[in-house]
Amino acid sequence: MGDKTKKIIDNKPIKDLAKILDELNLTEVSYSDGNFSITVARGARPQIIDNVPKVNKVNDIQVEENDDYKNDPRVIKSPMVGTVYLQPEPGANKFVNLGDQIKSGQTLLIIEAMKTMNPIESTLQGKVIKVLVENEQAVEFGQPLMLIG
Question: How far is 137 from 131, CA to CA, in rounded Å?
């Protein structure tokens, strides 16, 4: 009987479950269909174990990068919760572009809050290094908007 079981076991469901295990970062997944039942668990396979830290490292880098912007002296932060507009009206040129020289007090963008358009002015002088938000993006209080250096 043991030989017959080996012949009717298809590797495809095992591979599919292993893929689901990996994609969803699970430690164990089971499947049952009538007399057929299979469990795939993460553990002894070094290949799967190695993939977990890589995902975490990528996430850690992203978090650190965002944290760096919050404490970066070159950052312009949102003074309110609202929606960002990078141009004065649809179809118009942006207030500023990458590489533009900025003066203190210059309008960088608008944040709409409670149906009021609030111009956000630069507190820094320098060049636009990076725009950290997209047009019509919702922003939180203190969220980094741009880097000026």
Answer: 12
Residue 23 is predicted with a pLDDT of 77
Interatomic CA distance for residues 92 and 8, integer angstroms: 66
Neighbours of 62 (CB within 10 A): 10
Angle at 56 between CA 50 and CA 59, to 5 degrees: 145
Chosen CATH of 74-148 out of 3.40.50.720, 3.40.50.150, 2.40.50.100, 3.90.550.10 = 2.40.50.100
For 124, half-sphere exposure in the C-beta direction (CA atoms, 13 angstrom radius) is 18
Read off the pLDDT of residues 17-30 as tens digits, 9 standing for 90 and up: 778 777 777 777 77
The full set of domain ranges for the chain reads 2-69, 74-148
CA dist., res. 13 & res. 8, Å (int)? 12
Residue of 93 and 49 predicted with greater confidence: 93
Exposure on the CB side of residue 122, measured as CA atoms within 13 A? 23
